[in-house]
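Schema walk-through. Below, the input block comes first and the output block second. Nothing else is stored per chain. Lengths vary across the set, and this one has 116 residues.
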Amino acid sequence: MPIKMYGIKNCDTIKKARTWLEGHGVAYDFHDYKASGIDRPSLEAWVEEFGWETVLNRAGTTFKKLPDADKQGLDAERAIALMLAQPSMIKRPMLDLGGRRIVGFKPEAYDAAFPG
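--- output ---
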């Protein structure tokens, strides 16, 4: 299974992650979930693996612009519904290595995943 990066094309963090991968000769497919959406089973699997608190990007402007009522009483199901409705609320990037995933971009995590 090829490596797949999920994110939004114009996101600065995505640009940094893509630059890192390309600079290290790592081939990957890119899925822009703002343009193509995200399926519920993938999102549910990410939430199960990392917790909705990690997968939901509460630091982004899309989440911050939500009415306060939508931000209150969040749980996994409500967070998934928000992310399905507005995929830009999903933490970026989500890098699927096949057997495991890396959420977010930290060069040291990528160094560990792709040694040498």
